[in-house]
Amino acid sequence: MAKYLLLKHYRGAPASVNDVPMDQWTPEEFSAHVQYMRDFAARLESTGEFVESHELSPEGTFVRYDGEGRPPVTDGPFAETKDLIAGWMVIDVESYERALELAGELSAAPGAGGKPIHEWLEVRPFYGVTPTATE
Amino acid sequence: MDQALLRALIPTVIGVLVRRGADFAAAEDAVQEALVEAIRVWPENPPRDPKGWLVTVAWRKFLDAARAEASRRQREVRVDAEPLPGEGEAVDDTLQLYFLCAHPSLTPASAVALTLRAVGGLTTRQIAQAYLVPEATMAQRISRAKRTVSSVRFTQPGDVGTVLRVLYLVFNEGYSGDVDLAGEAIRLTRQLAARIHHEEVAGLLALMLLHHARRPARTAPDGSLVPLAEQDRSLWDTRLITEGVDVLQAALARDRLGEFQAQAAIAALHADARTAEETDWVQIVEWYDELVRITGSPVARLNRAVAVGEADGARAGLAALEGLDPALPRYSAAAAYLHERDGDLVTAARLYAEAARAAPNLAEREHLTRQAARLNTGLRR
């Protein structure tokens, strides 16, 4: 098995096909979307492929070291950062093909008009384990 | 409480319940519940007869579950509350469990999880922690696996080869968590070798012992990988090496060579060398020839090329790389090593950096990045 991160961007990914902001959906469309995500996670748990799922607040601040004895410098939060992570799901699956299949299903979550969003998700493999037998 | 003793009893107790009429899935669940209770209760109140205790508790759990199921379906309990007499083992239950849990209809990950629980006597929580997934996910993986094998008869003979592949996966790809999976794989392979005379079972056991012997030398105190040539050989476990070599020699004497015996023979030749310089690379190349003949595996050919580089010089090693797909895992790392030995440091540094980007795990990435950095620093001087 191998673990993959399915990364969802607020911004930075190419535009979705059904690209209507959530606040323009009807409450029913929004509920249907949330239910789809819950069902998806529950189904992955039942297939033994679910690891975790988290969502992030859109408020992000950059921080860096500014020298001995000085407080770190902060910058932001930014209204116009190029890339903004919205959240992620970690899955543990048999193959890369299976990871792509699941990301495809997640991207089909319904949005405006109850139609799939066709949102772009980023699939990133985790590093695996160091094998015991190496030569 | 002796955890290993407790765990060793688990497959036997599952066998007892199955012979009393429980189906495998229900028996395995009941024994898992009894196991969790034993871990809780035994430290305070150790039983005089551990196996009897487990059978009694597991049977009661099984009956409770069967009654609950029956009342849910409003049916009679069809299994007698009183166990049937005659508990003598007609077949080796533990051996049957190895076959069932590694059944070819299971995916490798399911077979691993089921083997660790039903044969290894680990709890779902321990297995989940070892593979870094939530307990609920691992529980589902195991119950799906049990559904997959539900139509397989318990006494059906199985394939040793699939069992060995599952045990090798546990040994080789286990995360290091609370449970030492490499040690657990050795315990399970040792237990299998005691039940079945098969040269490849012995070959795998020897391979595991010989690799495990080098574990203390394989990582530096900071966690970085130490390649074989640079390992402090005084840290190798000579007791495990002796046992591994004995097991291997007995297997080879049967004259039915297989891939695990060939790999163990290579590991034994490394173990035999007191210093890296004393390594008998000519014999190692001969064993790689056997391994390539048996498996036809491109990975074996790649490893063979590195061994040829040691036996006959870097040029010969690079020639042996020709015809192999550069997309093979660790191809760039092998090519980098051989180019460095050949004196082409610029190519070697570029290939090490390329290998680092393609590394399948963090420890290898760090090791390969360090090699590239070492060569590039030297080239700048």
Automatic annotation (TrEMBL), chain A:
Coiled coil residues, start to end: none
UniProt xrefs under InterPro entries: Dimeric_a/b-barrel, YCII
Record Pfam families: YCII
Domain (YCII-related) ranges: 17-107
Family per record: Belongs to the YciI family.
Name of the protein: YCII-related domain-containing protein
Automatic annotation (TrEMBL), chain B:
Keywords, ordered alphabetically: Sigma factor, Transcription, Transcription regulation
Domain RNA polymerase sigma factor 70 region 4 type positions: 98-148
Record's keyword annotation contains Endoplasmic reticulum: no
Pfam families referenced in this protein's UniProt entry, alphabetically: DUF6596 (PF20239), Sigma70_r2 (PF04542), Sigma70_r4_2 (PF08281)
Domain RNA polymerase sigma-70 region residues, every copy: 5-70
A biological-process GO annotation: DNA-templated transcription initiation
Transmembrane stretches, start-end: none
InterPro entries recorded: DUF6596 (IPR046531), RNA_pol_sigma-70_dom (IPR014284), RNA_pol_sigma70_r2 (IPR007627), RNA_pol_sigma70_r4_t2 (IPR013249), RNA_pol_sigma_r2 (IPR013325), RNA_pol_sigma_r3/r4-like (IPR013324), WH-like_DNA-bd_sf (IPR036388)
Residues in DUF6596 domain copies: 161-251
Classification via SUPFAM superfamilies: Sigma2 domain of RNA polymerase sigma factors (SSF88946), Sigma3 and sigma4 domains of RNA polymerase sigma factors (SSF88659)
GO molecular function per UniProt: DNA binding; sigma factor activity
Record family assignment: Belongs to the sigma-70 factor family. ECF subfamily.
Name this polypeptide is given: RNA polymerase subunit sigma-24
Species, as recorded: Prauserella muralis
